[in-house]
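note to self — DONT lose this again. spent like an hour looking for the file last time. sequence + predicted structure for the chain T wanted, 207 res
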Amino acid sequence: MTLPLNRQILASLLLMGALTGCRGQVTQDAPVVPIRNMYNQPRYDSQERSAFFQDGRTMRPQVEGTVSREDDPNIGVATGRADDNAEWVLEVPRQVVQRNGGGAAFVARGQERYNIYCAPCHGEGGDALGPVAARVSGLGVNSMVPPTFHDDRLRSIPDGQVFATITHGIRNMPAYAQSIPTDDRWAIVTYVRALQLSEQGRPSRPE
């Protein structure tokens, strides 16, 4: 006996609904995995004991004498401080500029990195008119608005101090040591100085 067409459609819809509601059953059987070594991979949690290493430690100590490719053995380059740690490095180290293609290429690299990491807050012109700064200012949180780079105080501080501020952060500004390599941080310092020079002699922006 053949069901009428409308009943066939109704029965099909009911069957589809029942199938979509099927969630399966809990099982203790191992899952069917075509590539088993991609499913079962050796891993450890932090501080977990390891049977692989003789000392039983999962978290391995740094190999003695290892130097990161990102770290420069020159203290001034790595920290922005003089060798005796008594004062800031006054200018961007010459060897950093030279190994990155010279002045013009270094400033261009600094502009690229600045526009990615710094412009959202400090503005493309270094005038503290970035979109993030405008947002917090509009909310009335003026304490979170960064200073303009064209302030006389920031024009006169040593390059090493600007580098260290990028490295470690200050107040609301986070540290960028983990995000921006050493040479790129110096490149940003160079570009900040270029922005400051470009604004010298111009009339002050009305408040």
